[in-house]
Amino acid sequence: MKRVLGALGAVGVLALLSGCHIDMWQQPKAKADGESDFFKDRSVSRSFVEGTVPVGGLRLDRAYFEGKDTAGKPIVQIPAKAVETLGGPKEFLERGENRYNVFCAPCHGRLGDGNGFIAQRGLGYWQKVPANLHTDKIRKKTDGEVYNTVVHGKGVMYGYGARLPEIEDRWAVVGYVRALQKAHGATSEPSSASAPASAQVQQAQQEVDSALSGLTGDVLFDTGKTELKPAARTFLDKLGPVLKKYPTLRFEVGGHTDSQGNADKNKTLSEGRARAVRSYLLGRGASDGQLSATGYGQTVPVGDNGTSEGRAKNRRITFKALGGAS
């Protein structure tokens, strides 16, 4: 018993020596909705001093921070301040490429054609596929509109504002998207080589058409599907030698459907099929910059959608020689 009492006494002495006080957990404080004797109005919570601005809250340059003018409309061009902040045009685009490849390329692809690895995993035709940034609809958007899409998202795409907290990084992504669009739509300057180049494109197109003669969409895909049928390889493998023969030319893979069903679903289906063909050819040696994929849905019929024969003609994949590779 004496040993126990002695041990307790030793613990007590140690506690006193260590400065253990009850006010460590019972500290004097005032709750936000409580009462205070310090202020005349006896209120604990205080209003902000007039003119106080929270850290990062003073954003007088609406164009730079929001991509909008004073009237709230999207601005047309990237603010010069965004380019200057990153050190100049070269550094601006390099930063944009870095941020784009990290956050955007998984869905939209490194070329901006919507063929990132998320899309390549396989999406059902009823699902929303990533946007192709080279469509006229997106090209015509102002820089302010693209900026707001990056920050706040659109459709099934969530906003990247939290992931890109630095304002100049957001604008750098917009700048790099514009660079991709210019590269995708670039044409050769007029020169003495223009005529031979045109002849080369025509020759390549003839060889592509010959390789795919007799090909219909029904040979490549089952109804409503984006997965290639085994028989499709017989036709697509014929394109390999043509693509290797013209490594400096770009080709567009176009997907088309008949008019049966919903137009939006048909467009999505055609995009998925075009990308499936492109992915197959990339796996057979074609280069990234050589092939693009576009879904046209039911908008470019070649047959009468009122007949089964005409609809069969409209369900197709097309290849078009475009010009110099990007």
Strand order of the largest sheet: 4-3-5
Class by SSE composition: mainly alpha
The radius of gyration computed from the alpha-carbon positions, rounded to a whole number of angstroms, is 31 Å
Mean pLDDT: 81
Q: How would you sum up the major sheet?
A: 3 strands, mixed
String of helices and strands: HHHHHHHHEEHHHHHEHEHE
Quote the beta fraction: 5-15%
Number of helices: 15
Share of helical residues: 40-55%
Number of distinct beta strands: 5
State the shape.
elongated
Low-confidence stretches: 187-197
Distance between the amino and carboxyl termini: 91 Å
Indicate the topology.
Layout lengths: L1 H16 L44 H5 L13 H6 L3 H15 L1 H4 L8 H4 L15 H4 L3 H10 E2 L2 E2 L8 H18 L9 H18 L5 H4 L11 H5 L2 H7 L3 E8 L6 H20 L8 E7 L10 H7 L1 E9 L2
Parallel strand pairs: 3-4
Antiparallel strand pairs: 1-2, 3-5
Helix pairs in contact: 4-9, 8-9
Describe the model:
There is one protein chain. It is elongated and about 90 Å long. Helix 4 (89-103) packs across helix 9 (167-184) and helix 8 (143-152) packs across helix 9 (167-184). The longest helix has 20 residues, at 263-282. Mean pLDDT is 81; it is low at 187-197. It starts with a helix and ends with a strand. Strands 4-3-5 form a 3-stranded mixed sheet. Strand 1 and strand 2 (157-158) form a beta hairpin. It is built from 15 helices and 5 strands. It is mostly helical. The chain has helices at 2-17, 62-66, 80-85, 89-103, 105-108, 117-120, 136-139, 143-152, 167-184, 194-211, 217-220, 232-236, 239-245, 263-282, 308-314, and strands at residues 153-154, 157-158, 249-256, 291-297, 316-324. Helices cover 44% and strands 9% of the residues.
